[in-house]
Amino acid sequence: MEKSKGINPTIVLIGKTGQGKSSLGNKISNSAGAFKVGEKLKNETTKISKTDFKWPYNQNLTVSLLDTPGFADNSRNEELSDEAIMKMIFNYMENFKGGFNVALFCWEAKSRFDKNDIEEFFILSELLEKKYSIMFGFVPLN
Predict the structure, then answer these.
(1) Which of 129 and 100 is assigned the larger pLDDT?
(2) 24: helix, coil or strand?
(3) Are the C-beta atoms of residues 12 and 25 closer than 8 Å to each other?
(4) Would you list the domain boundaries of the chain?
């Protein structure tokens, strides 16, 4: 078994409400209850949640996984507006020991990547590009 060299990666899940961030987090961490999953487009995640898990291919490596509130949720007040969520994520990132390694921009495979998604993705890309790897792809929920 390969030994970790003290670098434990951190992954942050970012995207719209109802697109599968929490479900993806549960799959990645191999824990059905790591993150609470909402029903349909009703938001469940209202603050950043974190879980740590052992990487299956290297049990000496601990991965931190962060689930964030979703963007474009019309059911919330201004406290959780898109701008407030971005600030929450960046404040958390600034104070998180060791920083982040990967930001996963998630959206459900059944939906289109619309103009707002593209704008949010590019804003996040510009803010993250110098420090973090950005990955995006479709999230299969089945």
Answers:
(1) 100
(2) helix
(3) no
(4) 10-139
Q: What is the pLDDT of residues 2-17, one digit of tens each?
A: 444 557 788 889 888 8
The DSSP secondary structure of 77-141, one letter per residue, reads -GGGSHHHHHHHHHHHHHHSTT--SEEEEEEETTS---HHHHHHHHHHHHHHTTT-EEEEEEE--
Compute the distance between CA of residue 135 and CA of residue 98 in angstroms, rounded to an integer: 19
Four-point Cα dihedral 135, 55, 10, 118, nearest 10: 20
Take residue 47 and report the two structure tokens written for it: 């603050």
pTM here is 0.76
* CA–CA separation, 55 and 50 (whole Å): 15
Please give the CATH superfamily to which domain 10-139 belongs. Answer: P-loop containing nucleotide triphosphate hydrolases (3.40.50.300)
Tokens representing residue 84 in the block: 């407030």
Residues 6+ apart with CB under 8 A from 139: 19, 20, 21, 23, 24, 106, 107, 108, 109
Give the residue among 13, 63, 69 at the shortest CA–CA distance from 38.
69
Q: Widest CA span of the chain, in angstroms?
A: 49
